[in-house]
Write a structure and sequence with these properties.
The chain is mostly helical and about 110 residues long. The chain is built from six helices and no strands.
Length: about 110
């Protein structure tokens, strides 16, 4: 089961990177409506999202449901840190409070 925990974390990392790619694409201006959706960043972002979905499906089949549910919110934390390093977004008190609530929820869910 340990390899699937790492696989699930890798899938969450891929999903987080895909969100960053999609946000980066949304910040650009494109000459036409179709180019907004048919560009490298969007295609790569959705491609990574599909791969992370396939990884999640594999993990759902090999891990107890409780562990998979715990791993899903990790993506929110990864996106926050990736946004900090890539977009220079500030980590506010509200974001820290949200992260603490997510981690507390994981701890409560795991300990029950």
């Amino acid at each position: 089961m340990i390899p699937f925990i790492f696989l699930m974390l890798f899938g969450q990392l891929l999903a987080s990177v895909s969100q960053i790619l999609l946000k980066k694409s949304s910040q650009k201006e494109y000459p036409s409506f179709i180019r907004q959706y048919l560009n490298v960043l969007v295609i790569a972002g959705y491609g990574l999202l599909v791969v992370s979905l396939l990884i999640a499906i594999i993990c759902y089949g090999h891990m107890p449901y409780m562990y998979v549910v715990i791993m899903e919110p990790i993506g929110y934390i990864l996106v926050m840190f990736l946004s900090r390093f890539i977009f220079k977004e500030k980590i506010t008190i509200n974001k820290i409070a949200g992260m603490i609530l997510i981690l507390a929820g994981i701890a409560v869910f795991y300990l029950m």
